[in-house]
Amino acid sequence: MTVMEKLSILTDAAKYDAACTSSGLDRNARAGTIGNATACGICHSFAADGRCITLLKVLLSNSCVFDCQYCVNRVSRDTPRATFTPEELAELTISFYRRNYIEGLFLSSGVLRNPDYTCEQMIRTLELLRVRYRFGGYIHAKAIPGADPRLIERLGLLADRMSVNIELPSQESLRLLAPDKSKTSILKPMGYISGRIAESKHDLAVYRHAPRFAPAGQSTQMIVGATPESDRHILSLAEGLYRRYGLKRVFYSAYLPVTENALLPPPGTKPPLLREHRLYQADWLLRYYGFSADELVDGEHPDLNPLVDPKCGWALRHMELFPVEANKAPYELLLRVPGVGVKSARRIVRARRAGTLDFAALKTLGVVLKRAQYFLTCGGKMTPGLRVTPESALRALAEPEGLRLLEETPEQLSFFGAPAARLPGKEGFYAAALPRLA
């Protein structure tokens, strides 16, 4: 098998890893090295189907001794197998970089022989890039659960960012669908990486040239829609991971059925892309807007509303708190107003020191009045002529993309507790949504 044939198989097998993000790291090129890294420099990936390529996302091997039922590379599945040698992958990466095809490398792998052997091969690849080729560009490496901590240590000293994928969000789902994995085997290396990142930051504060361990932090991924966990369960887990392990990102991957299994959605089922989108929006609120998971989803509303974004959904359920006065409301409350972002909230706080703000001024400051006008007043008055009711607010705030996807997949209407056959057209969607948003 040629290197390009291996590349075709192993880039296609890597497409299920959702970790194409900014590098989160600034590093200038040094004399005698090739490549650098910028904090916002990595946003896309290289794929065999021709998508935009700034990151070579590839597996070292798609051979795996594990039999995770949701995975396209599990040992029991009949699929073409390929494995790069460290020399092949290092040479391929550096040649792509020199041709300006890519800006960095995202390296993962199936468990080849055992976790330690797989980790050793990944380390060898990165050592060739960093030492032989003097590559200073961005590298994201997946830690292999079950590998010796000393190997994870070495991998973290070579990579810019590391990740340990949780995949399934509960121990019960892991037991049923991934019997070779456990909660402990996943969280143990995650905790080790978190501790080493903290130690590295402390050492760098004292010794300028101390070795840097995963300076861009660590991330993880959860599969959405393969198992019955609610959005509340998923967001509570993500919130705990951010708090306990200081993760940079939690990625959510809508499950694409690739196999027949009684415990998984059947082949042909559409992936829950809208649900994935809502989880990313909720995750942003957890990280930057001061929300908690229990505020966005609770026992009565365990799943996010597909019609509106999570902040709008929360606001519509708490109309007793609105409208708020733009000229007096504290920063923390402004952040909770739909249509007001972090930047626009800061601008409002600064601008109102110089004078009274009106709706025209808010628009100039970047507030999305289409959303915010239902929840804000200026000088004690709302937008002239605006008639605010739960129905009018929902009609204005419902996103066309959410309506379209719900129309294509009417089974999702079970979210509203009403049968799809009784909900024709958009008016039916609104009528079903209102009781849940009250």
Overview of the structural elements:
With 438 residues, the protein is of the alpha/beta class. It has two domains: 3-261 and 270-296, Aldolase class I (TIM Barrel), CATH 3.20.20.70; 310-437, no CATH class. Helix content is 41%, strand content 8%. Helix 3 (115-132) packs parallel to helix 4 (149-158) and helix 15 (390-397) crosses helix 17.
Order of helices and strands: HEHEHEHEHHEHEHHHEHHHHEHHH
- Radius of gyration from CA coordinates: 24 Å
Major sheet summary line: 6 strands, parallel
Which residue ranges are poorly predicted, with pLDDT under 50 across at least 5 consecutive positions? 39-43, 411-426
Q: Let me know the average pLDDT.
A: 84
Looking at CATH, the homologous superfamily of the largest domain is Aldolase class I
What's the count of strands?
A: 8
Helix vs. strand class: alpha/beta
- CATH architectural grouping of the largest domain: Alpha-Beta Barrel
Q: How far is the first residue's CA from the last residue's CA? A: 61 Å
Q: What's a concise summary of this model?
A:
The chain has two domains: 286 residues, Alpha-Beta Barrel (TIM Barrel), CATH 3.20.20.70; 128 residues, no CATH class.
Keywords:
17 helices; six-stranded parallel sheet; 8% strand; TIM Barrel; single chain; 438 residues; alpha/beta
What's the SSE blueprint?
Blueprint: H1 3-13, E1 55-59, H2 86-98, E2 104-108, H3 115-132, E3 138-142, H4 149-158, E4 161-163, H5 171-177, H6 183-206, E5 218-224, H7 231-245, E6 249-254, H8 273-288, H9 293-296, H10 310-317, E7 324-325, H11 331-334, H12 342-351, H13 359-364, H14 369-372, E8 376-377, H15 390-397, H16 400-408, H17 425-437
Helix pairs in contact: 2-3, 3-4, 4-6, 7-8, 15-17
